[in-house]
Amino acid sequence: MYIKFTKMQGTGNDFIFIDQFGLDKFDLTTEQVRLMCDRKFGIGADGLMILRDHLETDFEMIYYNSDGNLSTMCGNGARCIVKLAYDHRYISEETKFLAPDGIHDATIDSDKIYLGMSDVHDYASANDIYILDSGSPHYITFVDDLDTIDVKEAGASIRYSPPYREQGINVNFVEMLSEDSFRIRTYERGVEDETLSCGTGVTAASIAATIKNANDVKHWKIKTQGGDLEVSFVQQERSFNNIKLIGPAEIVFEGKFVLAG
Q1: Do both 166 and 223 map to the same domain?
Q2: CB under 8 A, 24+ apart: contacts of 232-235
């Protein structure tokens, strides 16, 4: 059968969206998701999302990684799905929606989406490495020269190490630029490669940067391989609240895909 889709990207993190809002619902198999996300034989994307209506919120976001498995929160994808719901007139400039890690709020202001992220209540750190969950689990390490890192090789070696092999973890390499800005590159589990940007990754890294530098910076400017993002939050000891991931979301193209299986 033919399935309608929208291709979107948020700072180079690209996704396929299937709009089931107010329509008959259907799930996808692992093989179908993998095929659609394949950059040679399918549409090509870092992941796939389904937009559905929901009884208690404005809509629901269902997220698959490109490996075909259901996954946890995706910040860049969430900004994109908010933009899609707004363009389809399902929501106004302010919204609440259900994501894999719970209910999120978002505000659309011109070309930026201000996405409310889940609170972070704790973290672990040792030897200048930080582990925390910003909707998805993240490993953050700070480096002096980001361009010399083989992100795929170094990220995979950490992601598949014994502590993380079973559940997986996203691995972030961060280079400080100033007291309130940094560059970041991320290896994403489920994609099993470097992506041009990771929303939960920049969120986790912003919190880690504040902890590492023991400063009062609560609004970070971040340069990813695919574009610029911002993260702001309120800190109370080891708890981080009112977290906002701020950045653009754009439609790339729309079309129909022959869905087999």
Answers
A1: yes
A2: 233/206, 233/207, 235/210
Which residues are known catalytic residues? 74, 198
Q: Is 98 inside a domain boundary?
A: yes
The pLDDT score that the predictor gives to residue 261 is 57
Start-to-end CA distance of the chain, whole Å, equals: 9
Q: Is residue 110 over pLDDT 90?
A: no
Position 45 scores a pLDDT of 98
pTM to 2 decimals? 0.96
- Residue from 203, 206, 184 nearest 194 by CA: 184
149, 151, 210, 244 from 238: Cα distances, Å: 30, 29, 11, 17
Q: Which amino acid is at 30?
A: T
Rounded Cα distance, 145 and 13, in Å: 23
Q: How big is the CA angle at 9 (ends 155 and 226), to the nearest 5 degrees?
A: 50
Contact by Cβ (8 Å): 154, 173: yes
Do residues 164 and 225 share a domain? yes
